[in-house]
Amino acid sequence: MNSSDERLSFAPFFKAVAGRQDVRAVLEVLSEELGMGAAFREAYTGRLSVVSSSETFRESAKTFPMLELSRIYCSRDVHVGNIHSGILFLDLPSDSADSLAPEERIFLENAVIAAALCLERSFSRTVPGDEKRDELLKELLSGNMRDSREAEELFVQWGWKKDQEFLVLLLRLADEGKTKSSFTERERHLFFSLARSKVLSFFPKTFCVLFTKMLAFVLPVPSGKPETLSGVKDVLESIAVSLKEELPLKKGRGFVFAAGGVNAGLKEVSRSRAEAVRALAVSDVLRSPANVVLWDMLGGFQLVAILSGTEEARSFCAGILGVLLEGEDASSSELLETLLAMDGCNWNVKAASEMLRFHYNTVKYRLGILRERIGFDASDPAQRFDMGLALRLAPFFYKDKFVTLYQKDLI
């Protein structure tokens, strides 16, 4: 296998890609051909594969951070799609990379392609999981559990306690609905696979399934104490930051982790999922969008989310905000913007004018217009309370109008 022709072809890696579909198999071929150690470090799990008889190289590959490895050794980044998935490196100093013959460099690039293909195949195997377990999880999430006793026995076999407390965590990908910005099926699959591996690395006894176009996790927690939930939130936020760094999302795309309440007993899985769905609805209307929303930490927005499912709430908003909700003119948007700023500044005109970068008298003038158009008196505490509630409920019913306002940096 040492001829130049074979080095220039992809054939030596065919068995690795079509057979074991394991990056280690690629490293074995690469190491044998180039006569030096080879290693691969996954970006999202830190998992390491090394083929080398050198203890020094093996220890370095295990110890040094990925950035340092790329500086010390001859290395190549491996991407699956547009996702940076890891680094492949040789037991060759980076400043000696030029010593590789041209055909050896091509062989190395073929190894990078083979590693990416193996990773993509492994991604495709990670999400579906065990068929029986997935079927049971879908029954629990939908509230259609056929045999609760069998389900409890299976969960105990899978490592849960009978009185295990848990929450349902949903991961939703979102775009603005425009064809150019929509996620492709392949992109969704890669994103979900990467996110799943990150969540499971922190919560190893978690169960995961694709459900209603979202990734649903049934995630065990030690207890429902506030400090425990804060810890879960911190971990999820760190995962969200990591996903943003590794997945270059196009403009108009985003993702949200939404968790339902902490419950005990498998019959409560569907309840926690319903709360997670409501948490997603809240995340859609928050003035400051968040990538992580927990139902048990939403405070008064829990009640707002529950009320948003009623026609009475829609009628209440219409009664308070009136023509401002129906108006397409610029003045209606400006007045709504003023109300949002005033509400955010505890109805302090000076603070609101500074936030809006308007003169104090401009805000006072707009408040006068609001009194004329919808009868709102900002000096009346009872009316301020009603207005504050309406401004939190209305985005559930008039999302497009408020999303445009929230996109402004001032609100």
Could you walk me through the main structural features you see in this protein, from its secondary elements to its overall organization?
Strand 1 and strand 2 (48-51) form a beta hairpin. Strands 5, 6, 7, 8, 9 and 10 form a six-stranded mixed sheet that branches. Strands 2-1-4-3 form a four-stranded antiparallel sheet, with helices on both faces. It folds into three domains: 4-126, Beta-Lactamase (2-Layer Sandwich), CATH 3.30.450.40; 131-307, Reverse transcriptase/Diguanylate cyclase domain (Alpha-Beta Plaits); 311-406, PucR C-terminal helix-turn-helix domain (Arc Repressor Mutant, subunit A). With 411 residues, it is α+β, with helices and mostly antiparallel strands. It has helices at residues 4-7, 14-20, 23-34, 55-63, 66-72, 102-126, 131-142, 148-157, 185-202, 226-246, 269-285, 301-307, 311-321, 323-326, 330-344, 349-356, 360-374, 381-397, 399-406, and strands at residues 38-42, 48-51, 73-80, 83-93, 165-175, 207-211, 214-221, 253-259, 263-264, 292-294. The radius of gyration is 27 Å and the shape is elongated.
Primary descriptors:
411 residues, alpha+beta, Beta-Lactamase, Alpha-Beta Plaits, Arc Repressor Mutant, subunit A, 3 domains, 6-stranded mixed beta sheet, 4-stranded antiparallel beta sheet, 19 helices, 55% helix, elongated
Give a short overview.
This protein has 411 residues and is α+β, with helices and mostly antiparallel strands. It has 3 domains: 123 residues, 2-Layer Sandwich (Beta-Lactamase); 177 residues, Alpha-Beta Plaits (2-Layer Sandwich), CATH 3.30.70; 96 residues, PucR C-terminal helix-turn-helix domain (Arc Repressor Mutant, subunit A).
